[in-house]
Amino acid sequence: MPDAAVAFSVTVSTLLALVTIVVADEIRDTREGETVTLKCRFSEQSAASDFSYYWARSTGNKFDNVAIKGVQLNTNYRIDFRPEQGIYDLTIMNTSYSRDNGRFECRVKASGTGADVHQEYYNLTVLTPPQPPFVEPVELRATEDEKFDLTCSSIGGSPDPTITWYRVGSEKPLKSTIAKGGSKDLRTSSTLSIVPRREDDGAKFRCVVWNRAMSEKDKLETTVTLSVNCEYHTRTSTSKFVP
């Protein structure tokens, strides 16, 4: 077999051996000021010059390379670059929400063709607790048999908090519509739509807020009391019939 054919065969065999595409993102949590290591592991290979290596970061609408081969592009990042051992790890020191809360990807590409040989993805969440909940409207005066919306909101939190409605006396969550904030500076809301009856006058509803930055016992909550206006039915029952 000619030398060129042998070299091509070896290169193709090497590429096939290294293809280990990772589909699912791994979720990692950290907190402000901590150190976290994102591991990127692949089949061992010695010809580092045949491949390109980089780590990239997506935060909001920004996409940046943070390391190319063994060179980190941020003073708070460190690279462990040992391709001969199949290791290309990124260590982030003094993590911060504004810089690091986002998606990180490790890529190994074949030089020349640019074909992906190995990919790993991490969704890194810099945990921040949400603020206490508040309910709108402030005055909860509903009319019997007319739709009424209760909106419970919390500012901030990373990740977006879960906001759950309960009727006091029941531990069954009530169906509601969620609007996620998407940022630790924005509001996440849960709207509970009800059609109250006369017997719902004085009913209490509980809104519970939580995210992974908090322990289970530290959930935030507020309770509100519904007032149902039944005047329409009162007027109907006392009205006189006019022939």
Oligomer: single chain
User: What are the secondary-structure elements, in order, as H or E?
Assistant: HEEEEEEEEHEEEEEEEEEEEH
First-residue to last-residue Cα separation: 110 Å
Q: How much is the radius of gyration in Å?
A: 28 Å
Strand content: 35-45%
Which fold name fills CATH's third level, the topology of the largest domain?
Immunoglobulin-like
- Total strands: the figure is 19
Note the main sheet: 7 strands, mixed
The CATH first-level class of the largest domain comes to Mainly Beta
Q: What's the helix count?
A: 3
Q: Detail the poorly predicted runs.
A: 3-18, 232-243
Give the name of the CATH architecture of the largest domain: Sandwich
Residue-averaged pLDDT: 86
Structure classification: mainly beta
Keywords:
disulfide bond, transmembrane, disordered C terminus, 3 helices, 243 residues, Immunoglobulin-like, mainly beta, single chain, disordered N terminus, membrane, seven-stranded mixed β-sheet
Topology:
Blueprint: H1 3-18, E1 20-21, E2 26-31, E3 36-38, E4 51-59, E5 62-68, E6 71-72, E7 77-82, E8 87-92, H2 97-100, E9 102-110, E10 116-127, E11 134-136, E12 141-143, E13 148-155, E14 162-167, E15 177-179, E16 187-194, E17 204-210, E18 220-225, E19 227-229, H3 231-238
Parallel strand pairs: 1-10, 2-10, 12-19
Antiparallel strand pairs: 3-8, 4-5, 4-9, 5-6, 7-8, 9-10, 11-13, 13-16, 14-17, 15-16, 17-18
